[in-house]
């Protein structure tokens, strides 16, 4: 199985927690590969170590927010809400069905809150734009039936998906997957090979840059961070992510993925209900590979993946997911 380097803590700083599936800002500075005493890489599951106290989150003031190029406006109270999706560019996508735009309180969060109206999502969740209807319906059933969990039970986005899948009606599931299946994925992640990266910390279930003036060795990581944290927190679908990978990862990853084309297609953009893996979040893909290994993820599609990942090392995962993220989706 895989192993990672031990943690070197530079001090803890609060900035993110999960309450009822909602992401609230708190953060933790890390100079690390994983949390002390844990085997899961913190860059793939960005969480505070158990028992670490969180600083109180800043309270919304009602300030009106805008993003470049949009005439829309939302307050800082509305943007984090689970039942209202900030739709900054409504002309760039089809009309969202109710379950995507506002959900159904109290049990069904608006799908677009996490996955965004574009379906491209963020590192803590899955990019669902353009995935097949059959694949997404099966995944919702797996979440509902306990066949798809997380290797880290505290991970809020997976918990939220399980809860939503258990509460949603079949009609709501159908409406959501029809919408996301109709979308065309866009280039959302810029991949950079490097030996050193900006100093990072744990943010709201994603890694964020702590200090642009300080750097650290990348180690054996894919470090996926927002291009512009402020715009990411505003849920701006025009502001993507950069994924730093060790030098040589793309060449190594290309070689390692040659066998993936047998199921995922020659361009790795999926075949039928086998999903696209090109241009997707490397953090999310790493979590899924590990979840297949640990048995946290089961079901029809998992049965095909388990033999593939059984002996895969973390170093191989870094190269594979970094390369896949670099491709056109």
Automatic annotation (TrEMBL):
Residue ranges annotated for the Cytochrome c domain, each copy included: 98-184, 248-328
PROSITE patterns registered for this protein in UniProt: CYTC
**GO molecular function per UniProt:** electron transfer activity; heme binding; metal ion binding
Task: Give the UniProt keywords, A-Z.
Answer: Electron transport, Heme, Iron, Metal-binding, Transport
Quote the SUPFAM superfamilies the UniProt record gives: Cytochrome c
Does this UniProt record's set of keywords contain Transport? yes
Show the InterPro entries listed in the entry.
Cyt_c-like_dom, Cyt_c-like_dom_sf, Cytochrome_c_Oxidase_Subunit
Protein name in UniProt: Cytochrome c553
* Organism expressing this protein natively: Terriglobus roseus
Species classification: Bacteria, Pseudomonadati, Acidobacteriota, Terriglobia, Terriglobales
């Amino acid at each position: 199985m895989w192993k990672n380097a031990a943690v070197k803590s530079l001090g803890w700083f609060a900035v993110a927690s999960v309450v009822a599936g909602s992401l609230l800002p708190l953060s933790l500075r890390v100079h690390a590969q994983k949390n002390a005493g844990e085997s899961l890489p913190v860059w793939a599951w960005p969480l505070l170590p158990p028992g670490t106290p969180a600083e109180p989150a800043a309270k919304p003031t009602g300030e009106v927010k805008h993003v470049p190029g949009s005439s829309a406006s939302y307050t800082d109270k509305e943007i984090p809400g689970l039942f209202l999706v900030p739709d900054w560019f409504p002309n760039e996508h089809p009309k969202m069905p109710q379950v995507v735009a506002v959900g159904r309180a109290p049990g069904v969060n608006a799908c677009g809150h996490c996955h965004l109206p574009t379906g491209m999502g963020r590192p803590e969740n899955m990019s669902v734009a353009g995935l097949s209807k059959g694949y997404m319906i099966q995944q919702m059933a797996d979440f509902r039936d306990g066949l798809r969990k997380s290797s880290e039970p505290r991970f809020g986005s997976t918990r939220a998906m399980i809860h939503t899948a258990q509460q949603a009606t079949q009609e709501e599931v159908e409406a959501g997957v029809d919408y996301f299946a109709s979308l065309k994925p866009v280039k959302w992640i810029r991949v950079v090979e490097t030996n050193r990266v900006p100093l990072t910390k744990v943010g709201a279930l994603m890694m964020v840059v702590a200090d642009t003036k300080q750097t650290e060795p990348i180690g054996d990581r894919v470090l996926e961070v927002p291009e512009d944290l402020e715009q990411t927190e505003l849920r701006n679908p025009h502001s993507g992510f950069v994924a730093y990978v060790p030098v040589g990862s793309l060449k190594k990853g290309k070689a390692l993925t040659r066998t993936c084309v047998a199921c995922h297609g020659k361009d790795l953009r999926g075949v039928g209900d086998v999903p696209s893996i090109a241009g997707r979040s490397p953090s999310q893909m790493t979590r899924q590979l590990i979840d297949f290994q640990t048995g946290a993820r089961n079901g029809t599609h998992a049965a095909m993946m388990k033999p593939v990942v059984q002996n895969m090392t973390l170093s191989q995962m870094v190269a594979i997911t970094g390369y896949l993220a670099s491709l056109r989706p």
